[in-house]
Amino acid sequence: MCSTKPTPSIDYSKRSGYFRTRIVWPNVFFFIFLHCAALYTVFGCAHLWSWKIFCVWYLTACLSAYSVSIGAHRLWSHRCFKARLPLRIVLMLLNCMAGQNDLFVWCRDHRLHHKYTDTDADPHSTTRGMFFAHMGWLMLKKHDAVIEKGKSLDCSDLLGDPVIRFQRRFYIPLYFLGVVIVPSWIIYRCFDVPLLFAVGTSLTRYTFQLHNTWCINSLAHWFGDRPYDKNIKACDNPVIKWHLIGECFHNYHHVFPFDYKSSEFPFTIFDTSSSLIRLLSYVGLTYDLKEASQEAVARRKEKIGQDGGLY
Hints:
Layout: H1 25-44, H2 51-77, E1 82-83, H3 85-98, H4 103-115, H5 130-134, H6 144-152, H7 156-159, H8 162-169, H9 171-191, H10 195-218, H11 250-255, H12 272-282, E2 286-287, H13 294-304
Antiparallel strand pairs: 1-2
Helix pairs in contact: 1-10, 2-3, 2-4, 2-10, 3-9, 9-10
């Protein structure tokens, strides 16, 4: 005789190796709007652009990029060097123009990325596809492992910095000021262009800057050289060699994340962030610069490095 007891349902979301994808629709619609606005500003308003506007546009893109590379990444995430209060304030304000979440969240997620690279606890793991690693991770709810490990990660040093606490408290108004209002006002007042076009230039710069950073999460974990550790996905990607902020030596960075340089070379045009950090040390704004010894780099290359080639 057949049993009349109902078959218990299985919660597949709790099964090992399974994760239920949950789309964050507001982020999806926001990115669609952002890209549409940027494309219209570039192609639909091409007659309004001038070389002077482009120079201002490029300058703001560089400043926001350096705030990520020098500030969020090397200073606060990895503690590669120390910075005086005036420089930390400037980097924090410029970081608001980058608009990539407040510094605490950015640094916490980046530390998770390094500690749990390409696992479920990696916020933008490449094991879930290149689009996910590039920008899809921002359109989906975080994996349970990311949330769990993020809570256990020690980020007390970040909250111990009053500059980060200030930005975190007032991030929403600072975000709108940095991403849209201030850059748009500069273009609008200085070049006598329509206000909507000025806003469009800011959204175009913002879109470009987001992809500029996202390429490190995707392309730099996809293919390229692995001269320092051939067993990890992080690579020195030739496509982003002219990356705006000098983060193309990604294999080196994952092996020596404490180094204020992104490569073993002290001087290279492909890592202008390192040059700026070193330049600022000459005037006392940065100090205690950390770097890997040449002996340690040579040993690592000889032990598990790869001569070259594509992954």
